[in-house]
Amino acid sequence: MSDKAKGKLSLVGLCLMIFTSVYGFNNIPRAFYMMGYAAIPWYIVGGLFFFLPFAFMVTELGSAFKEEKGGIYSWMEKAVGPTFAFIGTFMWYASYLVWMVNVSNGIMVPITNMIFGNSLHVPDPWILSLIAMAWIAAITFFALRGLDAVKKFATLGGIAVLSLNAILLVCALLVLILNGQPTTPITADAFVTSLNPNFNNGSAIGFIAFMVFAIFAYGGVEAVGGLVDETDKPEKNFPRGVVTSALIIAIGYSVMILCVGFFMNYQTGGAFYEGVKAGTINLGNAGYVTMQYLGEALGDAFGLDHSGAVAIGSILARYMGLAMLLSLMGAFFTLIYSPVKQIISGTPDK
Q: pTM of the prediction?
């Protein structure tokens, strides 16, 4: 391998960066929390009519402009001119700034879950703000060191996301096999009606709002557009990496949402249902509660006593905190480095 190729992104590295930018594991338990099995058709629609076409567009543009360093700025400049290219790219970057400010203020949630197994020890808001500032400063410092630092953290984040999915898939299938049936029954009605007791199934607005959520779950693949010139053999590996990741992500979301129902009791009177109804389970803690329940369901399926099942659940909840922290680190590194690189590298010197 030449020295020039050594610093380039491999196909696997590119796929892992796409995973950390697009695939949010928390979108799975949150979707099940909001809609139950009824989330699956909407994720399929979002994948077929938004994500896959968009991924093919990114692939086509990346292949056509494989020598360009400016990513989507360069693509837009060739299509609509430099003025609109700069405005569009800057608005895109600004949207990620809003996302980073929002997420960084909640960075203690995965940390406290990793340490304590729950979110009850989150500090006061003013302390969270100071931690968020330190988090952004640290991420920016390391991102300034170039692609190698970004690549390492993005790889860690991608591996963390993949491991969470592997744990959920294997454990959910074990619970299904040992119990003989899904904990939440699979019926035709369950795919068109939300199981959430607080959701108005008679309102079209509610379903449209969830469609927006499903589409948002697929956002972020454009961030790797500025890494075409950093990819080894971009004419072959970049399209292959984007398409492969897109297919896995689109299929993975639906399969994983289905798996949650194998161990989660979302029926009237069930623990998850009653927690949602009482408001103790919400969008903020749904992911950690899901992993806690997964461990407890696995322990019960193997015949462990209550304390043993709870211990397994606590271990999985803590690992969820660690994995989400690594995943967010990878996403932050990618989304701080790539948009700025595209703006700086793409815009003319004068």
A: 0.84
